[in-house]
Amino acid sequence: MKNLKLQWIDKIPPPEERNPELFYYDIRNSEIDNGYTVERGVLANNIGSLVTNKDILGDKKFITDEELNSLHYEEVQDLYVKQNSIESDIELE
Q: Can you give 4-18 as a three-state secondary structure string?
């Protein structure tokens, strides 16, 4: 996927803090292999989350870690910035 940016986050922010131009996903241990899966909204066994600038699932319910790695993304730290944080204060200046 061209120009895909991804940021690992602890958990998906509440709806009022989300940027509508970004895509939010949960990560959980895979039931298929020893890796993990990326899904929209995991209710149990959530081990983290991520935010991207493009929809990486499309019509799929989930992708595996191998499928995610094949997308050739750029890992960034500034795609999602928590409100009322040092990063958000810097962004406002």
A: CEEEEECCCCCHHHC
With CA atoms as reference, report the closest residue to 28 among 15, 12, 17, 52: 12
User: CA-to-CA distance for 17 and 81, rounded, in angstroms?
Assistant: 9
How confident is the model over 31-69, as pLDDT tens digits? Answer: 777 889 999 988 788 899 999 999 999 999 999 999 999
Q: How far apart are CA 32 and CA 77, in angstroms?
A: 29
pTM metric for this prediction: 0.82
Spell out the domain ranges in the chain. 5-92
Q: What residues form DSSP beta bridges with 56?
A: none
Evaluate whether 19 touches 80 at the Cβ level (below 8 Å).
yes
